[in-house]
Amino acid sequence: MEAGEPQDCTSWLPDELALRILSYLDAKDILQVAQTCQRWRELAEDEGLWQGKCKADGIEEPPQVTRSRAKGSGSGPWKSAYTNQLRVDTNWHRGRFRTITLDTSESGTDFITWTSDGKEMICVVDDNTIQIWSAVTGKPIRTLVGHTDKILTMQMRDHMIVSGSWDCTVKVWNAESGECIHTLGGHTHVVPQVYLHGNRVASGSCDGSIRIWDIETGRCLHVLMADISYHSYIYYDGRWVISMNENLKIWDPETQSSLRSFPITIPITAIRHTELKGSRLLLVTDDGTITVWDTDTGRRIQTITDLQTYISAVSLRANIFIWGDKGLPAGFDRKRFQRYVENVRLRSHFDLSNTGFGPVPLWGFRLGTGWDEDGHRYLRDLLTREKYIHFIIVCRTKLICLTDERSNERMKVLDFN
């Protein structure tokens, strides 16, 4: 090599060390380094490098990785997952998105019972029918017909939907084909609660029982005699069942016995997420309040407000996106708010640090307090003008908002992908 010719001082490094160096760079720098020479371009395609980046930033494993593993491949599209998320983050920070409005004007949609997985949304229409919508196009995809009375509750996971009804049955649906796979009969009163976990579902009925079902076979596995009412709450993690009414009870389905019971002071209808680990119980309500309880003593031992701040900022930003920012008070600190939003990323789950509990799914949270007092004034003004957001679902690439404009409810999807 002639004197003065530029040299790559890292060309003699083993790949393992070169990749270690790359791991300290952010994504933009890695992509720039990849343009310098063939070797760095090849190193910048390393899936292990991007897998580490994704895990460090809390990016979920792409479904293509699972499929490639099933085929015996050791690699997956982690780089695509990271760069896609980078694009979404940039669009979120700069306010670039596509708005999709579901045309529900003639569908008789009940927005009290609805949910979404980010790709599809399900709502109840005409009391006893389930309508599946595309969160990508906003168009209805298919209708699930079978219940003979009002549907009270639904849960969705992948292509499976479970619903409970006034007709005293629980139905298991294939969302892709629209087929009713099983009608689970056995309850003698209305079924206002279902909780889906793996291939099992717990159903709570006003007949005073909780039943555990195998949704693949349709067989009832356990029956618990519990004090269940229309406004009760149930949770099932595959091992334990929790029922909440005036008291919280933890049940062992195998022995059909109540293990612990204590009074609970949280509004039951506001609960959005539950997690039980040993003697610690995590409860999340629809305003973003997180509480941790000691199930041995029945005492609340911790209250976490981080999620409240996140939901407040996201809901305020969603309102600004939909209704505009002309109504923001003069005292509102736009620069401070923007700095906070730049550090907030759209995620389908909210990570909890130093709690021992897993991430919280961001489903069905109601309007936040406005992030600060001036933001709260803006939201109060929207309420006065009858223009506001009821609930939001936060997905990896979307905000799904239930809006109300002069008593006319609409579902809007803000797509940042």
UniProtKB/TrEMBL annotation:
Chain ranges of the F-box domain: 13-53
PROSITE patterns in UniProt: FBOX, WD_REPEATS_1, WD_REPEATS_2, WD_REPEATS_REGION
Statement: the UniProt record of this protein carries the keyword Phosphoprotein: no
Keyword terms of this UniProt record: Repeat, Ubl conjugation pathway, WD repeat
Matching Pfam families: F-box-like, WD40
The WD repeat ranges on this chain: 102-143, 144-183, 184-223, 278-303
SUPFAM superfamilies reported in the protein's UniProt record: F-box domain, WD40 repeat-like
UniProt protein name: F-box/WD repeat-containing protein 7
Organism of provenance: Xenopus tropicalis
